[in-house]
Amino acid sequence: MGFLFQNKKDKELEAIVNQIKVDLSNNYKDNAIENIKKLEERLAEKKEEGKVKNPEEYEKLLEHFKLDVKNFKRTY
């Protein structure tokens, strides 16, 4: 029965991910960069403590967000 909970997401990390998505969709590049750093730091801490189930998923998201910010173009 334990397999049902293997894909459980980390609420704190998910909140940061969602904030980054909002920042990017609203063209808040500076906020997005700040939250990407926050996500990277918290992910590293949680991995070290063994408190994150699927770090690879968050690492992929981090790389994706970093690319988005790198290629970010102002729309005004």
Structure, described:
- This protein has helices spanning 11-25, 29-49, 55-70.
- By secondary structure, it is mostly helical.
- 17% of the residues are buried.
Produce the secondary structure layout.
Elements: H1 11-25, H2 29-49, H3 55-70
Helix pairs in contact: 1-2, 1-3, 2-3
* Helix-strand pattern: HHH
What does the radius of gyration come to? 14 Å
Largest sheet, in brief, is: none
Low-pLDDT runs: 1-6
* Average of pLDDT: 87
Descriptive labels:
elongated, mainly alpha, 76 residues, disordered N terminus, 68% helix, 3 helices
In short:
The chain has 3 helices and no strands.
